[in-house]
Amino acid sequence: MSAFSHLDNQGEARMVDVTSKPAQRREATAAGSILCQAETLRLLREQALPKGDVLAVARIAGIQAAKRTHELIPLCHALPLDQVSIRFDVHEEEIAIAATVRTTAKTGVEMEALTAVTVAALTLYDMMKAVDKTMRINAIRVTEKIKA
Predict the structure, then answer these.
(1) In what order do the strands lie in the sheet with 24-35?
(2) Are 15 and 4 in contact (CB under 8 A)?
(3) Can you point out the beta strands (E) in 3-132?
(4) How far apart are CA 72 and CA 18, in angstroms?
(5) What is the pLDDT of residues 96-134, one digit of tens each?
(6) Which sequence positions are flagged as catalytic?
(7) Helix, strand and coil percent figures for the chain, each rounded to 5
(8) What is the pLDDT of residues 47-91, one digit of tens each?
(9) Helices 110-128 & 54-67, crossing angle to 10 degrees?
(10) How far from the centroid of its chain's Cα atoms is residue 58's Cα?
(11) What are the pLDDT digits (tens) for 27-53?
(12) How far apart are CA 41 and CA 47, in angstroms?
């Protein structure tokens, strides 16, 4: 009935069956940013934000989120993650966020990378909102996908 992978022949939602797929090394990178006022970024650089080292907390939040993606997104497979790395680059008016996720599994890790970036950005927003009411999370997307 349907060519959609998440629908069965009756059109009902289902988890994609990956039983017959071989486990392969897989990697995905996602990126996004949070736009901030220059003063907020000055406080960040000087480690003078009221809630402390927001980048360290956001990094841990992103890693934890990647590990729990299957609990947040219906029909997403639980995957044994080999590595999750989160990088932040503080620019003039934004913090660029990138997450790379690696595994050896039967399905890819794009959702885990996207979830890591999203939750890292949300954590930054939460921890800096007291000093910046204008922040905006922007342009979250998959930037690279590797299957070897």
Answers:
(1) 81-90, 94-105, 24-35, 136-147
(2) no
(3) 24-35, 81-90, 94-105
(4) 20
(5) 999 999 999 999 999 999 999 999 999 999 999 999 999
(6) 126
(7) 30, 30, 35
(8) 999 999 999 999 999 999 999 999 999 989 999 999 999 999 999
(9) 150
(10) 11
(11) 999 999 999 999 999 999 999 999 999
(12) 10
d(CA 137, CA 23): 34
Say which amino acid occupies 98: A
Distance CA 147, CA 39 (A): 41
Using the structure block, give the residue that is written with the tokens 């998440």: 6
Query: Measuring CA to CA, how many Å separate 87 from each of 79, 108, 127, 140?
Result: 22, 20, 17, 14
Distance CA 13, CA 49 (A): 45
As given in the structure block, the two tokens for residue 3 are: 């060519």
Six-digit token pair at 9? Answer: 């022949």
Tokens of 73: 């997104």
Tokens of 101: 């996720």
Q: Is the pTM of this model over 0.85?
A: yes
